[in-house]
Amino acid sequence: MTLYGEKNPPADDRPTVLVTAVTWPDDGPGSATAPTAEPANGPRRPRRMRTLLAAGVTGGVLAAVAGAGAWAYAGDVPRGTNVLDAELGGRSRTEAGRELQAALDRRAATLTAPLRVTVGDRTAEINPADVGLSVDVAATVAAAAEADAHPVSRLVGSRTVDPVVTVDADRLDTTLRKVLGDQVQGMTLPAITYQGTTPKVVQPKPGLAFDPQRTAEVVRAGWLAGTPVTVPLVESHPATTAEELDRLVAELAKPAVAAPVTLRTGRGSVTVPPAAIAKSLRFTADKAGRLTPTVDVKRLRTALGDDLAAIEVPPKDATIAISGGRPKVTEGQPGQQLDTATLSRDLLAVLPKSDGREVTGELKPTPPELTAEKLAGLGIKERVSTFTTRFTGGMASSRSQNIATIAKEVDGAIVLPGKTFSLNGHTGERGYAQGYRDAPVILDGKLVPGVGGGTSQFTTTLFNASYYAGLEDVEHKPHSYWFDRYPAVIESTIFWPSLDFKFRNNTPHGLLIDTSYTSSTITVSIWSTKIYDSVKTEYGPRRNVTTPKLIHLEPGPTCIPSNGINGFTQDAFRVIKKDGKVVKREKFTWRYEAEPRYVCGPKPS
After folding, report:
1. DSSP state of 396
2. Contact present, 253 and 199 (Cβ < 8 Å)
3. Measured between alpha carbons, how far is 396 from 519 in angstroms, rounded to an integer?
4. Torsion over CA: 576, 579, 582, 584 (sign)
């Protein structure tokens, strides 16, 4: 009986040895086994002597068994255990590791030799070290220590433990793909797209590739044995079959665009035409080739355009502006927009139907992305840089009006910490529809009339403001020719859509771009939290100076004369100081071409 709470005796983990009992005859009176005659070899021993002899024999047996047990259980690794012909049995883990490493060192020539690999009909040799082939000594010793530890097995018998071989699967795959070359055939994933409202299908096809697990197994075995390896190739089939693809087309892709869908809300209804459905219905294949249909509501919004304005109220972000020389925050306003999750699900459900093609959209309150509280916490509290450039012609000129137009578009832009500002991305296309006018631009090395001329001056001004704020330059391109209204090297042009200006807010604070202009100046200031003591520019001397050529052009409205400008190469160094020390010194270099002197008229005879 076990009493709960009593302390149980410790378990004896020594081996249990079965000993055959020895029975001695009893010579006492009345014994049923008492002999009736003296033994043939002499008189009987006294009982006490026989008892002592029995105890001695039993003790000897037990001592022998105990000795055998101690021998069998010596060390961490069971007796008779070997790895790569190295006897590890009876050793501690440390000793077994040294013995195994010695065995590996004796095989070094084999284990480091190039491994001959055949893949398909190509054969090559790979360096074992390049694919991470090695024996994990510690893991192998651990496996050996956990080999069959049955008491009888420890006393007799032997066992061989396979070494633990490691390989870098990614490096092996990359190396074998180079050997395989164009024999690898990736799966052709199934696809359904739309050309207009007509479904276009890509049928699935199997590929020929490696089985990663099987490949690693044969490479490990071949490397260890020092024998050539043939890597098997297997066919991989896309999860969506050709039959399933055809069914998707017949049951969803075609009926989806056969008729419009009516989207009803509490604020009115919108018709979703087949063209909008085709742009938003996506059939996405995963890596296994499993095709899944979804409705991309973001694409649907773009396709519907202004039609959603009849039922949705977009949220308005909080804004910040400079008033009285200080930043002032204006709270944003929530809006009401369609619940995209339910709309995607419900729309997908009605697209296969030929009638009853109606869905009810739920309008949900939508908070502004940027609230006044969040805006106030961005650290926009002081002006950290400002830059001004001058122009001529007054506000009556088209060039000046273009400068003012882009300045108004950028004014008030907020760049969050870690985000990149793109001037092209912010303004979009700058054409006649956006209020820009024709003014001189540089095209193919000469000044010609072009829509948006003058926006490069604003770009240069913004570039310098971000430059002197210590912000990270991401993308800019100086002009081909140097104009003395700009600082050399530290300036930038722009052209939609091929040339952009970008900088990254590499500070922990938000920043505000504040713009202003007069009839002869454009000014850009950056407001944030000041980080640096100063940001200055140190110039190197101009070198490789070239003089302009004289070129005569055909007179006409597209000919713009110029006086010509020397070309040169120059270095500019941005020197940033913090706490009285230079923390960054950046080199900017640019080569200006010599702008020809253009004359509108024929050469003199």
Report:
1. G
2. yes
3. 9
4. negative
Q: Tell me how far apart the alpha carbons of residues 281 and 284 are, in angstroms, rounded to a whole number.
A: 10
C-beta pairs of 305-308 under 8 Å, 24+ apart in sequence: 307/270, 307/271, 308/270, 308/338
pLDDT in tens, 297-345: 999 999 998 888 889 999 999 999 999 889 999 999 999 999 988 999 9
DSSP 370: S
Contact yes or no for 187/130 (Cβ under 8 A): no
Q: Are 276 and 304 in contact (CB under 8 A)?
A: yes
DSSP-assigned beta bridge partners for residue 447? 442
pLDDT tens-digit series, residues 223-281: 988 899 888 888 889 999 999 999 999 999 999 999 999 999 989 999 999 999 999 99
Handedness of CA 267, 273, 279, 281 (dihedral sign): positive
286-293: Cβ within 8 A, 24+ apart:
286/239, 288/238, 288/239, 289/187, 289/189, 289/190, 289/204, 289/237, 289/238, 289/239, 289/240, 290/238, 290/239, 290/240, 291/190, 291/191, 291/192, 291/240, 291/244, 291/245, 291/248, 293/248, 293/252, 293/348
CA-wise closest residue to 368 among 329, 336, 413: 336
C-alpha distances (whole Å) from 362 to each of 261, 301, 394 are 16, 15, 53
CB within 8 Å of 396: residues ≥ 6 apart: none
| Residue-level pLDDT at 45 | 53
Six-digit token string for 245: 């693809």
- Which structure tokens are listed for 41? 């070899």
Nearest to 298 by CA among 313, 276, 315, 273: 276
For 490, the 3-state DSSP assignment is coil
H helix runs in 314-422, sequence order: 340-350, 372-376, 398-410
State the pTM of this model: 0.56
* Structural tokens at position 501: 């200006």
Give the position of tokens 């992305």: 369
Is there a cis peptide before residue 497, judged by omega within 30 degrees of 0?
Answer: yes
Which helix or strand (DSSP H or E) is residue 86 part of? strand 86-87
Q: Which of 512, 414, 524, 408 is nearest to 459 (CA)?
A: 524
Q: Rounded to 5 degrees, what angle do the CA atoms 513, 518, 519 make? A: 140
Residue type present at position 227: T
